[in-house]
């Protein structure tokens, strides 16, 4: 039997001093070279972060501002003068973003979409941008361009919808990230007066005792589908029948509110001319059973003694025709035709 030699393999050899554990080696390496690693770490961090902060973040911020919407839910024009008015406006921000950056107060120029000139600048207050956030503007605005505002007022008068452009460069801050500047360029659609469609003289009477030359009174109905409350002052409208001037209608201290407006009116009409017309055998309206078509066209809007050219322009851009029962008005006075 041969003896199997078991060769003892030395398994427990002590490591030479240079062959330490990986961890230990790493530790020693860092002890010596930590500053190189720190510099590399910081450099990598900066290479990643800087573009995020200075390129990506402004871009994300800009996209958020671009994607947000703006609704004007209320707009009050008060104390108008030829070159200014008091504006009170509520805007509602719409946003689907989960970020709610702070948008700093900024100067926004407001123009009719497509117009070359802004009609005013508005200081928009600071706001935390989130869905449903309200922005309230309350200030005296100077009409930097009263003609451009006249075009806006006319567009409001004539159109069902009016598009406004609001432009500015506000600062924006998200959390603890640095402040960045974004471009705010929004088109806001709002309802207009749509040619005062639905306008009606619901009641009119010949005054038995004329006052200040005013010899008719009554009530007008003016629907206002917009969100605007417009102080127009003393409004004068021209009255004509078949192209012949017949006098003036007055809406004193007119303030158009959103919804249905029922407003007292007065008129100075040439009664002898009207009676002459309806009693003449050549009355072109004799088949209308007493009705006479009056054309109402804008003459002027005056507030505190000053004519407001922009409202005058808006009023002049729109003619209305109302059929008034002259026979009935005369019958009220006991005059039978
Ligand atoms: C803004 O108005 C539009 C249409 O009128 C509506 O669909 C939207 O929900 C409104 N957004 C806000 C934030 O009120
Ligand atoms: C704002 O955006 C509109 C298009 O939506 C563009 O026509 C207009 O030039 C922009 N305004 C500015 C000042 O960049
Ligand atoms: C119109 O004036 C008459 C007096 O002439 C008055 O009785 C009437 O109440 C007035 N109507 C309206 C609607 O102002
Ligand atoms: C305004 O008047 C019209 C009818 O002329 C009516 O249908 C509507 O409900 C009224 N609106 C308000 C807010 O009263
Ligand atoms: C009223 O009409 C008559 C006849 O059309 C005319 O002769 C008269 O001058 C007019 N009066 C006024 C104040 O315009
Ligand atoms: C406005 O009314 C005045 C009288 O009050 C008249 O002289 C003038 O011609 C009218 N202007 C227009 C544009 O109808
Ligand atoms: C409208 O005219 C009347 C009478 O002239 C005046 O007392 C009133 O102050 C005027 N209203 C406005 C808003 O200018
Ligand atoms: C409105 O009617 C007046 C007189 O009837 C006329 O001079 C004017 O051109 C008309 N305006 C419009 C916009 O149709
Ligand atoms: C106008 O009024 C007269 C008298 O009140 C009446 O007979 C006539 O039917 C009225 N016309 C219309 C179109 O309502």
UniProtKB/TrEMBL annotation:
<dbReference type="Pfam" id="PF12505">
    <property type="entry name" value="DUF3712"/>
</dbReference>
<keyword id="KW-0812">Transmembrane</keyword>
<keyword id="KW-1133">Transmembrane helix</keyword>
<keyword id="KW-0472">Membrane</keyword>
<dbReference type="GO" id="GO:0000329">
    <property type="term" value="C:fungal-type vacuole membrane"/>
</dbReference>
<feature type="transmembrane region" description="Helical">
    <location>
        <begin position="34"/>
        <end position="57"/>
    </location>
</feature>
<dbReference type="InterPro" id="IPR022185">
    <property type="entry name" value="DUF3712"/>
</dbReference>
<dbReference type="InterPro" id="IPR046368">
    <property type="entry name" value="Tag1"/>
</dbReference>
<protein>
    <submittedName>
        <fullName>Uncharacterized protein</fullName>
    </submittedName>
</protein>
